[in-house]
C-alpha cells in the first residue's frame, strides 16, 4: 500500500483489492458472478476525493464501498480496505474492522450489544454506529494507546478465532 498509496489508477486499485482479499480471506471470488475486482475498483476510483477523505478518516467511505455496485454487501471488506490504507499510508487509526470474529465476539465486551444489532448495522450500512461502538468501548476502559483500534482488532482476532 505504501508503494501505491493513491487511488488514481484502476489496475492498482484492483491489485490492492486482490491482496486484501487473499490476505484476509474476504472471499470476494465467491461473488464473481455478481461483482468483479474491476467493478469494485471502479467504485473506489470514482469516489470523489477518496484519498483526502481516507486520510481524514471519513467513515462514509466504508458504506460507499460496501454498497459497491448493488450486487452484494461488502461491509467487512470495505472496513478492512479503509482500515489498512488509513493505518499504513496515513499512519492513523480512524477505522475499525468488521468481520465474522468481531460479530461473534464483540457482544461479549459491550453491554447490551447483540449479534443482531451488529447485523442490523451491517445490513443498513451504518458503519458510523459500529465504529463509534468500538471507540466508546475503548474510551470506557480508558484505552488511549497508539493504534488502539488496530490493537483491539488484533486482540479480538487472537482471543476469539
Compact summary:
This protein is an all-alpha fold and 161 residues long. It has 9 helices and no strands. 58% of the residues lie in helices and 0% in strands.
Keywords:
single chain, mainly alpha, 161 residues, globular, 9 helices
Oligomerization: single chain
Return the average pLDDT rounded to an integer.
Answer: 92
Strand proportion: under 5%
C-alpha Rg, in Å? 15 Å
Please explain how this structure is put together.
The chain has helices at 10-24, 37-45, 50-55, 60-67, 75-88, 100-105, 115-123, 127-140, 148-160. Helix 1 (10-24) crosses helix 2 and helix 4 packs across helix 5 (75-88). The longest helix is centred in the N-terminal third of the chain and has 15 residues, at 10-24. By secondary structure, the chain is an all-alpha fold. The model has no long low-confidence stretch (mean pLDDT 92).
How would the blueprint of this fold be written?
Elements (H helix, E strand, L loop, with lengths): L9 H15 L12 H9 L4 H6 L4 H8 L7 H14 L11 H6 L9 H9 L3 H14 L7 H13 L1
Helix pairs in contact: 1-2, 4-5
